[in-house]
């Protein structure tokens, strides 16, 4: 049975291999333009900076150099139930310099489309065992992000040689570029 997390809550991840599922629903009628939400992953070192450009995993770079983080591809519509995008994680082969994996979801072309996370609902991040399709952890974002165009859903971090998941739920107004600036 999955552990349902609240914002800020942390929980150990005992499985070295797992998948992160991300989901959301959008209010398409509010702007007249379709939404395209994108999951991105930043693999960081001790200095809270990205290990290299290749350690930024997103729809144009689907796999980290070590193969430990793999984005399964961009979902352009977010239609339907369940996960909209997934990221496979294998901590057994991750770069030893990696101490944190940040999972961010952004709205593609949010400014020109006049869209923000206030128009997105039922957002969640879950960690699950792909072999059994069993949820280990789940965090449902309940905040109303009325001006934010990017949200850090969660992060996986290493402390005392153990990996943990933190339910973050923190938004940013500037979109993906703000996260690139923060982590570069």
From TrEMBL:
Alphabetically ordered keywords of this record: Tellurium resistance
InterPro entries in alphabetical order: Stress/Tellurium_Resist, TerD
Domain TerD residues, every copy: 1-183
Record GO biological process: response to tellurium ion
The keyword Metal-binding appears for this protein: no
Pfam families found in the cross-reference section: TerD
Transmembrane segments: none
Protein name (database record): TerD family protein
Organism: Mucilaginibacter terrigena
């Amino acid at each position: 049975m999955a552990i349902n997390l609240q914002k800020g809550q942390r929980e150990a991840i005992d499985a070295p291999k797992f998948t992160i599922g991300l989901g959301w629903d959008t209010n398409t009628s509010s702007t007249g333009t379709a939404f395209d939400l994108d999951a991105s992953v930043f693999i960081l070192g001790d200095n809270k900076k990205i290990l290299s450009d290749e350690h930024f995993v997103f729809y144009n770079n689907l796999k980290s150099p070590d193969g430990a983080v793999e984005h399964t591809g961009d979902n352009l519509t977010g239609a339907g139930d369940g996960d909209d995008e997934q990221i496979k994680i294998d901590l057994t082969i991750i770069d030893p310099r990696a101490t944190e994996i940040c999972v961010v979801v952004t709205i593609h072309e949010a400014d020109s489309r006049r869209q923000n996370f206030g128009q997105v609902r039922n957002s969640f991040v879950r960690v699950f065992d792909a072999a059994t399709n069993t949820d280990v952890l789940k965090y449902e974002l309940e905040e109303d992000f009325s001006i934010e165009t990017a949200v850090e859903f969660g992060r996986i971090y290493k402390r005392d040689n153990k990996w943990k998941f933190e339910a973050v739920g923190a938004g940013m107004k500037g979109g993906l570029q703000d996260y690139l600036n923060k982590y570069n």
